[in-house]
Amino acid sequence: MKMTEPNDRMQGHLHRFRFKFLDKEDRYEITCKSPCSVLQALETSSKFCVLKEKTVKQKMETRQQEKTMQRQDLVIQTMKGKKPIATHFPCHLIKNGQILTISTVFNDSEEATTETTQIYKENKQYVIFYIESEGGKNTKTKQLLKNKKLKPFSPLCIYAICGETVETALTRDGRFHDNVFIQTFTLVESESDPPRCVEMNVLVDCLDKQTFKMILEERNATQAPTAPPQAGSNLQKEDETNSIQLPMSNTSTETSAAGEPPKKQKYPVTVTDSAEILKILRHQFADLVKQMKKRYKKKKYSGVLSHLSGEFGKSTEGFSEVYTVKKLMELSDSVCMIDVKGVKQGTGFLLFDHYILTNAHLFKKDGIFYVNEYGHISAKVTATFNKENPSESNLKEIDVKPEIIDFQWGFDAYNRHVDFAVLELQDVDTSTGLLCRSSPDPKTGGVCLIGHPGGGVKRTDPTTIIERERRGEAFQRETGKNDRMDMLINTSIEENKVNYDMLMKPDSTEVTYDTCLFHGASGSPVFDESCQVIAMHTGGFPYKDEGVKSVIEYAIPLFTILENFLIEMMNRNNVEILTKFTREALTGLHSRDFIYNFIRHLVTEWKPSFSAALTAVWETVKENENHLRMKENLRTWIISKKEVLEKIQIAGNEALKEFMLENILVKLSQTDDDDEPMDE
Question: Where is the composition biased (Polar residues) (predicted)?
Fold first, then answer.
């Protein structure tokens, strides 16, 4: 279940703009209260949802080849200049009072023209530039746009964040064909004389308000391809005399007859085309230094190095902003200390209603879980809120019911690590649940943990995400200092080998970082720089050296936990919890989309036993003011999924068919003819 487009609920963000449909004169006002995408802002208007649905339906009815059922792309243009923007264009870049014109075009390709999750922050510096839909030199036979029907809407408006490259901005935009990134395309400024050329690896900082055309240049010895060569390509088969030999360690783990591991052996490894690569890098280095001197306003290369050294640790600077600190302190009211009497202490947080989320391993001691097969906890458990003052005043200790709501430990159906427990409080706490603040993890950037390490007062720790590709480096940095340290670290890794192998997998989903919160912090919420909960702190690789230290720590993404929790509630037909979860989730942007994907999962994997769960979730959705948007998205999805319409016809699925018809997600004639478009 993947969410789309998060929303940073920052205060002080308030502006208005208007929209109209291309064939209509009526104009409607949108009031935007928080940073988000243009489409998200538009979808707060029920009038937009209704008019969009009617426009799409009319186009489908007048199209001669209805049976192809192609998708339609939304085209959003500004009245001034009529340059179309992407649907994920940051809303705060639209001027107050600006009018947007909405239309749709058919997308005859199989590719979507929207991209992945974006984080909208008003404190970032943005640039806007334009690219003609028709290319220049050597592009006549090349497809530049995924959807060719966007060509008349030239030039396309592109937004970018200062400090990123042209390629990054165009990739995020989502409307450009893969050809643009695979071949050596270059941007040429339309009105410059002599022509000003901008390559894909150039930073966007100086491109604001400029218009470009794409040209295709022939690659020569001084140009590196945009995409890396694939295994077995001609580049690898060329003359291998231009190569450098590098030593590589033998990683064999076989032992000798004496039982001792063999010493590491080294043998040469050939790096193909290394002379060519070295030539390219040397050619690009001078331009890079020149560009960085200009960007950082330094006269000497040594000044650039000093500036970059000063950048260390700035990925957590977002947590020094007063607004962010205040918001985190407010959200920290939902964090509590979990005490499993006689077993372990840890951290948890209020997820929704009066349900607490924490780690399952808090209930494990000496290899024994204190939760039986029927979900009964055999130890007393308490949740203590407001443990912030060393004097322990204003503590609020609440007993946890002995019947556990959900308990999962191990690996799920997708081989992802799970280690969580959902507990029910005896009394309802007054804190706000964090479900509505849930968000996909950003993979990079700053994060902040809030927890109760050592069972003490509540603490925070801002830190930085260690990307998956750099985890090996994090372990290597700690080793090699002295033999004693190496032994301690290697022992910790061996004792946690399953977790180590899990983090080193190329498809690992865990979030990793370096934190000073150790024992007792398990179950802590992990916040990103937008104060969204992205994960739950779970463990690390501790060792003792003048106190407890750890090599690296990790958290399980919150969406992995929520997905497994919902599926378990679905399998149990726990209508009460599904209803409460859905009602709370609909108040958050990402969690709302999570519910949408959960409904799709219920329909796709339909079993008659899902009927009660589907009905409970949908009835709760209908209570929400945004239900029209979700209904429209579901109908559009059903059109594109022939197997869903076929599923309705299968004997035993009458409940699914009745649900679809009752909620006008399909019409009666369509259950017999799935090529016919839907209407009200």
Answer: 242-256
